[in-house]
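> tool_call: predict_assembly(chains=two)
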Amino acid sequence: MTACQFVPAYQRGDLARPEMAFDADPLGSKLNQHIYFSKEASTGGNGVAAGGCGCN
Amino acid sequence: MKSKTLMALSASAVALPGVLVSTSAVSDTPPTAKIISYRASSYKEDALASEALLAGSPERYDIEIHQLRYSSPIGEKYSISLDSSYESMSGASPWYTVKSANGDTKVAMSGASIYEKRRDVTASVKRYYDRGNFGASFTISDENDYRSNSASVDGSFTLANDSTTLSAGIAHSDDDINPTDAAFFNRILSANKSTTSAFVSVTQILNQFSIIQTGVSSTRAGGYLTAPYKLSDHRPEERNQFTWTTSWRRYFREQRSAFHANYRFYDDDFGVRSHTIDFALHKSFSRLITLVPNVRYYQQQAAHFFTPATDFARTMEFNSSDYRLSKYDALSAGLKFNIQLGDYTLVLSGERYRTSGSSNPAVIDFTRLSAGIDYTF
């Protein structure tokens, strides 16, 4: 397994691509996390947005 | 040399209830453009199987969701974002379960007359520094029977080698519960609960094409944690939750693809323990079209006080037949298209979610479809 490499700024273009983001779709992620929060017993760790009851 | 480039890579994926996570890899530096985004979504749960229905309507929830987001730089050191959602829901909900003579679990549903609306608004501001950022947000979520106010702060700091970012945050929410028809159904008239969370994470550049982020979060919920619309549902008034999350991103230049892998371990003192793993591939076919297939697998253990049939005699201090606290697996798959047309990006996506292995037949399968547009200016 390779160790971490120092990557100079001029070689970080691919890392900075939008599709490489940890959350590339804020609205889509917010909706999905709210659905999972409402329908599963687990929550947290993935940016759960704006609570709500999720009672039903 | 400023460390903005690394900060651009360290958008926090480990966040908290009430925290709206950073939007993209480039959003931890002040954004260079304003973006308005809109999504319309349809969420539809499959009907309960007829052989499992004891009473009520087999029709489950249909939800229409509208989302609007605005983000903008403010000067050179600040950014703001506003998010709002509006949901309208209708359908029936599981009420209680019984064991039939042949040992099968039957579900009594409410009538299909539940109509609810939920609105939420989140306002966020972020201040950028040479080696980090600091943000705060406030969220209000409002339903006719439920209101939640939450606030959070978070920050990130880049270490001297410009390859590592440390992030941390805390959040708190206060929720008020006022069940409808409380007197008629002998429900609690009003109650409240509060939730406090904290997280820490580290983001590390591995090489020119890959980056990893790992973090832990701890959440304590206290107050009325029982489901007010379930019959004979009694839960502890405290819940301590822990998550460990790891996310990995790898870019394949020749294939013009970004591979995403995420794993979450979850454990709480209700006895629920779960594993979640998901993969996505962001494949660009040209500068205009991106296709994103994804798959997600979720597996959870039952809460220690879960009972397949509702415990009307209350033989245990705590008990619940809520399907969400049962042991089950869930597999979902989705597909998303992004089509860029000048300053506009059209977004179409869908997801199918199926469960298996539960002792409660009320556990859900659902389909979600979404369409929307982003305007950058």
